[in-house]
Specification:
This protein is an alpha+beta fold and about 130 residues long. It has three helices and six strands. The protein has one domain.
């Protein structure tokens, strides 16, 4: 199915990074867990698969802000979630409203946003996993 919608990529950075991110120039990313919100007007699963390939291969055409992080050797893509039928900005604003969420780089992923999002990349608190046993 070739559906439109939003997606969320979850990333881990083991240590701080400063990267030249296109028009955002030298951008500083503190170590930690991140959530990036993107969208696809069609083919959301293909878009997520493209990001997964960049993160795995650490190579490929850098097209969007998130690609600069994905191809960096120390960035780890931990999971992704496709949200068919959802708006990128609605998902972004929901994540931004959570307690403890910060914006490390203003306008990252949202330079063309018309909904007033300050960014589409957020530093989040890591999800605590309960272990059995």
């Amino acid at each position: 199915m070739n559906r439109a919608g939003a997606y969320v990529l979850y990333l881990d950075l083991p240590r701080p990074l400063t990267l030249n991110v296109g028009t955002l120039k030298n951008s500083f990313f503190p170590a930690g867990s991140y959530a990036y919100v993107g969208s696809a007007s069609r083919g959301i699963n293909q878009r997520v698969a493209r990001h997964r390939r960049l993160a795995h291969l650490k190579a490929g055409k850098v097209r969007w802000h998130i690609d600069y992080l994905l191809v960096h050797p120390e960035t780890r893509l931990t999971r992704e979630k496709a949200l068919a039928g959802f708006s990128e900005c609605a998902v972004s604003k929901l994540i931004a409203s959570r307690k403890g969420v910060t914006i490390p780089v203003s306008k990252f992923g949202s330079t063309d946003c018309r909904a007033g999002c300050k960014a589409h990349l957020y530093r989040i608190k890591p999800v605590r996993r309960i272990q059995n046993g």
